[in-house]
Amino acid sequence: MCEDGFTLVEVLVVITLIAVTLTFLLNFFIASSQYLRQSNHQLVANNLARLKIEASLNQNYDDLSTSTLESFSDEEYQNYQYQIVVQEIEDGLKKIIVIVKDLKKTRAKLVTLKAKEN
Hints:
Number of helices: 1
Strand order of the largest sheet: 1-2-3-4
Organism: Halanaerobacter jeridensis
Helix content: 40-55%
Keywords: Membrane, Transmembrane, Transmembrane helix
Protein name: Prepilin-type N-terminal cleavage/methylation domain-containing protein
InterPro entries: N_methyl_site (IPR012902), Pilin-like (IPR045584)
CATH class: Alpha Beta
Transmembrane segments: 6-30
Order of helices and strands: HEEEE
Strand content: 25-35%
Shape: rod-shaped
């Protein structure tokens, strides 16, 4: 006897396969969105650190000094803070370290050198 259609077991197997597949896809999309958000925070922090490095390099050599942890003045970046650490490596050469943090952790740390101009 041949009947057209699906049995209850076949329907349950298909529903189970669809549910498992959708679960994996949903987890993938959730993880991807979290990764993208973290990448965005990292990118913003790196760019803010570069901005402060450039500002430090444009300062007079003798005016370079270590700063305390400060917030960015731009409202868009109010969740980020930075610190500039200046170390004299040798006479006429300073090491500039810029550290950028968000509310949770350190996101970027850039280092450069500046020589005293004659």
